[in-house]
What does this fold into?
Amino acid sequence: ETGVTQSPTHLIKTRGQQVTLRCSSQSGHNTVSWYQQALGQGPQFIFQYYREEENGRGNFPPRFSGLQFPNYSSELNVNALELDDSALYLCASSFQAEQETQYFGPGTRLLVL
Amino acid sequence: AQSVSQHNHHVILSEAASLELGCNYSYGGTVNLFWYVQYPGQHLQLLLKYFSGDPLVKGIKGFEAEFIKSKFSFNLRKPSVQWSDTAEYFCAVRQTGGFKTIFGAGTRLFVKA
It folds into this structure.
């Protein structure tokens, strides 16, 4: 059991809407990374948060934004949804001192119509 | 830019057959390497990882991988697969000390009973 939880498990939105996805880190972990996994592809790094600050970002536009809270839980926000945003969104937590080992949540499946 | 290439999208084996899944990466610096597995309906979980030292690393469930620096490869092996190894396998690379993990597209392994 990884201890990383995500909500909701799945949801449907329409193009142009906004969505917020949530992640609770494994106990003791202070770093959260978000990934987008399109069908048939591997996870693609969106960004990472460490102690409430964005620590690094992949090749995603600014309409993908995030937050990390003092309890190290995290949100991923996507504005102006596009059809291509349909994917599985994964959250992974780690302890910065051992940042190489990430523990993944079950993901949130987003469908944009 | 870093990239990870997994040689096979699908592999079908009979039980007791030997497994080798290929993985090559492109990055000239020092890297950390990972294999993750996703069993049907479950989270991504770490199979094994390489940071430094012995290039032959052993992971869970009898899997091992060999890092060959000159070939930029990190192939996954198992001498005798079981039906329960049916899953999707992802190779991943991270620049040592970096924040961004790059995943390959994954290989779906089907093991026939």
Chain B has a mean pLDDT of 94. The first strand of chain B starts at residue 3 and ends at 6. The CA atoms of residues 87 and 95 of chain B lie 26 Å apart. The two ends of chain B are 41 Å apart (CA to CA).
